[in-house]
Every structure is written in structure tokens, then in C-alpha cells.
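User: Could you check the structure of this?
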Amino acid sequence: MSTDSQSTDTITITVEGMTCGGCASKVDKALVATEGITSTSIDVPTGAVTISLDGTVASDDLVFDIDEAVTSVGYRVVS
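Assistant: Sure, the predicted C-alpha cells are below.
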């Protein structure tokens, strides 16, 4: 966990199809490898994925990148 004072923006999405920690790990790795994303917090039972952004990429560009990253590992963003 970072302790610096710089604030980061977060967004929360819902991902369909995750059933275990291994699923969450795949989604996390795909998202963190995406430019502009620094970390994720994933709740497998609800599918909620909170994504921390570093502010270097426009949010409009990230919508496509996030969907592409999640889809590339076999899951689907539903909201």
C-alpha cells in the first residue's frame, strides 16, 4: 500500500464470470498491465473491481482499454 500524499482517482466496474482467487488474479494482472492503472481491489463474490488510476491517460481512452484487458483474459465487464 502506498503512503504518499498524492491522491489517485478510482473507478469501480463489475466483471462477470470470476469464481475464485485465480480468476481475480488474471483480471488484476491484465488491468495492472494497462497504461494508466496502478492497482486493483477485487471482490470475487460480487464481481466488483475497484481500479486505481494514475491520471496519465484520459478516462475516455481507459474505458476501451479496461474492457479490452478484461476480455483478453476471458471475462466480461457488465457495468
